[in-house]
Amino acid sequence: MPDQLVVGFDLDMTLIDTAPGFRDVLAALGAELEVEFPVEEMTKRLGPPLDMLLEPYLDAEAIPAAGDRFRALYPDHAIAGTPAFAGAHDALAAVRRHGGRVVVVTGKYAPNAQLHLDHLGLDHDLLEGWVWGVGKADVLRREGASVYVGDHVHDVEGALAAGALSVSVLTGGCTRAELEAAGTHVILDSLTDLPAWLDEHVLDLRLAALEADLRERESVLVAYSGGADSAMLLAAAVRALGPGNVAAATGYSHALPMSERDPAREFAASLGVEVLTPETHEMDREGYRANGGDRCYFCKAELLDVLTPIAAERGLAHVATGTNADDAVAGFRPGIRAAAERGAIAPLRDAGLTKAQVRAASLRWDLPTWDKPAAACLSSRIAYGVEVTPQRLGRVERAEVAARAALADAGLVNLRVRDLGDRASVEVDAALLPLAPDVEAVVLAGVRDAGFGAAEVDARGFRSGSMNEAL
Predict the structure, then answer these.
(1) Number of domains observed in the structure of the chain
(2) For residues 85 and 16, is the Cβ–Cβ distance under 8 A?
(3) DSSP state, 380?
(4) Which of 9, 95, 151, 305 is least enclosed, having the fewest CB within 10 Å?
(5) Span between the terminal Cα atoms of the chain, in Å
(6) The last residue of a domain, from among 364, 389, 423
């Protein structure tokens, strides 16, 4: 897996609009010191430390005490009236969505900065205060931040000194030209633009990691089902290694729907990749037929036991599966264990690519599978504890063909006919429920005609992996 994403954020004029509170505190300080500060002018120059802002208006020896008094006045005058910028909460949530850490690195006095973060509910892992300019680099390096988001040229200096990507927002006092001259890498109008930018940035990083991994492998046989994950992996392997160092293998058995076979071959052929279609014999494995909670272990074991010698015979260094990063943390996945025990590699998982990122990359590459609905093997439709047989798989496939035909004009995306032993349960997209009575009647009639004595539409709608709910 790639290193954890760590993103640093400046506070003043990046996450929060400090100007109103700063004005109020400065006015209160001026009243106490009997000094008429040019409040509006000073507010436009937010970014440098307070001592530097006070230098033109106070004697040098008076500045430390004035700074202390400013910080003491701050909680009563600045916290309640200081808002978060639009997009601040969403920007932090975007980091979390990618499994990242949020580090706030600011020139502000840390206790007052913490009051802002707490008052506004700004999610963060670490706050480091009273650091400015290149001084921020030490904190960013220590925390492993690869991105630093700020609004000032001095934030750019800190990011560059840390070797981090500098992202600047135009909500502070610096212009686009000033930030560009300072060397920032990215300029956004505001934090509302950061989630989309971060999504693309993380996808770029993970695709680069995938390409580097595949290049090191030199050659691969992709365990290819034709679904979005294995199709994207196949395309990535061709990009990294060339079609001559890649082959695809689809295990043909009773569990693979006939409707999946031709599209899978056509897609692989469009990449210039040879498609192998060896037969697999899951049904010969007692554990598979018994259909316990570990059924997928025996299915994947059969597939890898068939593909591994084929890869060796063809001089292909590795067998690769389309397991993604979401699969690896999704809980009960006995098939992943079987593949790992047999030495299969999982490049998508190792690059940290989630299902959503697989689809985003597929769309970016114009792959026709980018929005293909999940299509698990037919045996996944049979309730655990009900024996898997060719006859049961056949009637599930016939029932799904009939139900899909009945719903052809309804905008159907996801469909499963679940074999519960004595009856069938039909799951369709929840947005289509409840079905019109006449439509439901046609759907259920088609399911019964396929060989089920009784059938019903599940009122909860389609749920990927719903059979696991009973485990």
Answers:
(1) 4
(2) yes
(3) G
(4) 305
(5) 29
(6) 364
